[in-house]
Design goal:
Chain lengths: 260, 276
């Protein structure tokens, strides 16, 4: 019994120690961000590999989710004779919730895991150590551009996800199921508010981008420099990001829409 | 000894390691190392695997902090320097890692150009000329367009060497430069270390357990075992040493002060326990 309690205590201490370490790491990143003004090419290169190369999975997933949403919502709304509300229902679901959350989860699986693996392998093959010995700070050269690329890419990918999702539901609702074209768009225009719904969705995606990128670069930098260590770090990135995004989503939703 | 002579002797030593202790967790790796590394010479630190040779190089480079004692390079205490000064000092140091540690996403040319691009404002044409000179020195000018994945182990190490000397460092550190190389590559690397040391006026520190190779090129050798310096001197002095540690290492004896068996309970007792 005592051993059991001791193990729980030790595990708790390890979690808080790691959290503290990750927080200090984050502070170091924030302090080092100005380095990107001197080396903008580093950021552009990472924006390509983190953002542009994630486009395919985001567009395909967004389209599929939008089509499924359109189909499911239509089947429910048609029972109440309110199928013309399909546009705003789908748009609000995507812009407020599904766009930012699903994009963050997909981002973590596609780009976050790649960031962790890349940084972890650079550590395992002494590439970070050799940078230090060449008087080049690996945090500034390797971590900061990747972190900022993640933060910038996430809201853009989430916007893309929502836009393509709406298009998917339009194709199913209007194209296949016979919802009125004008009602689909006009009701959406009437019900979806830029300052409440769209802006809150953008804020969510920025917060998720910061959390997902932070977890990805920290796990890579802190990985045990072995094959197994990098593999475990990559898994942790995906799992921790999922928990963080879902937890943050609840908190942000409660703050943004709790009093409505 | 007169004051002038003492001062001249101190000036001749570029790196001074003084009572250096280092522990990883509860395990003590270095237990009070004293080493003086003379300017312009090749000094080798030898010892069995796992005795802390690479750790010692990382302590010299300021990548690790000692638990006691210190390292002085050109009269600067490495571990008392702030980050900016430490990075300034590292610009004058080169290190060849055991794995080569080339940047896998950059070509051979770009790997060698990396420190020049980071630390100088030289024009592209000048960087090109300097990179080609460094690659010519290691015999790989013709391989400049290859990616690291296309290089053999020996070639990768030579490219890493060209990169390490790109900024003409005053100290060059080599971590196990001969390990896993074929005899031709070993010969090439030995020749390069001696040639670069003498022609560029560098001070070289080699960490290795390849006795024949290091004895052939080193001016001075130190032997580390169990966290202590157990032998020092020129190659011939070390070969004739009376120390059991040194003799076991130099003659590749399987048993001696470094035991063949990892500490374990009695063999008979261990076997009998399994019969229950």
């Amino acid at each position: 019994m005592l051993d059991w309690l001791q193990n729980i205590g030790q595990a708790g201490l390890r979690v808080f120690q790691r959290l503290g370490h990750a927080t200090l790491f984050m502070l170091q990143i924030l302090v080092s961000i100005p380095v990107l003004f001197r080396h903008p090419r580093l950021l552009i290169h990472e924006l390509y590999s983190v953002g542009v190369l994630s486009l395919a999975i985001i567009v395909i997933s967004g389209l599929t989710v939008g089509m499924v949403l359109g189909l499911q919502m239509y089947n429910t709304l048609v029972d109440f004779g309110t199928e013309d509300s399909l546009g705003p229902v789908v748009a609000l679901s995507l812009v407020r919730e599904l766009g930012p959350v699903l994009t963050a989860l997909l981002f973590s699986g596609r780009a976050g895991s790649a960031l962790t693996a890349e940084i972890g392998l650079m550590k395992a093959t002494d590439q970070l150590s050799v940078m230090e010995m060449m008087a080049v700070d690996p945090l500034k050269r390797v971590v900061v551009p990747r972190y900022m690329a993640g933060v910038i890419s996430m809201p853009l990918l989430a916007a893309m996800f929502s836009a393509v999702g709406i298009l998917g539901s339009y194709m199913v609702g209007v194209g296949m199921l016979g919802v009125d074209d004008g009602a689909f768009w006009s009701q959406m225009q009437d019900k979806v508010m830029l300052d409440e719904d769209v802006l809150n969705g953008v804020i969510k995606s920025i917060v998720f981008g910061m959390a997902a990128s932070w977890i990805a670069v920290f796990e890579g930098y802190d990985a045990v420099p072995t094959t197994e260590g990098v593999s475990r770090a990559t898994t942790r990135t995906v799992v921790h990001t999922a928990f963080a995004v879902l937890g943050l989503d609840f908190v942000l939703t409660a703050i943004m829409f709790g009093d409505q | 000894m007169s004051d002038t002579r003492v001062a001249r002797q101190q000036d001749a030593m570029l790196v001074r390691i003084n009572d250096l202790h280092y522990a990883r967790g509860t395990r003590k790796i270095l237990k009070g190392i004293n080493i003086d590394i003379p300017r312009g010479k090749i000094t080798t630190i030898m010892g069995p695997s796992g005795c802390g040779k690479t750790t010692l190089l990382r302590l010299i480079g300021g990548q690790l902090r000692p638990s006691q004692g210190g390292v002085t390079i050109a009269d600067q205490n490495v571990h008392a320097l702030n980050n900016t000064d430490l990075y300034q000092l590292r610009k004058r140091m080169g290190m060849l890692f055991q794995s080569g540690a080339l940047f896998t996403h950059l070509s051979v040319f770009e790997n060698v150009a990396f420190p020049l691009r980071e630390h100088t404002n030289l024009s592209e044409s000048l960087i090109r000329a300097l990179v080609l000179m460094k690659l010519q020195a290691v015999g790989l000018r013709g391989a400049r367009r290859l990616m690291p994945a296309e290089l053999s182990g020996g070639m990768a190490r030579r490219v890493a060497l060209a990169r390490a000397i790109a900024l003409d460092p005053m100290i060059m550190m080599y971590d196990e430069p001969f390990t896993g190389q074929d005899p031709i590559t070993v010969g090439v690397i030995m020749q390069l270390i001696r040639l670069l040391n003498d022609s560029l006026g560098m001070t070289s520190i080699i960490v290795s357990h390849d006795v024949q190779e290091v004895c052939a090129i080193s001016d001075r050798l130190y032997m580390i075992s169990d966290g202590y310096v157990v032998g020092e001197g020129g190659p011939d002095q070390l070969k004739q040493s009376d120390s059991g540690w040194v003799r076991q290492f130099m003659n590749a004896l399987p048993d001696g002060p470094v035991p063949f068996h990892y500490p374990a309970p009695s063999y008979a007792q261990d076997l009998l326990q399994g019969l229950d």
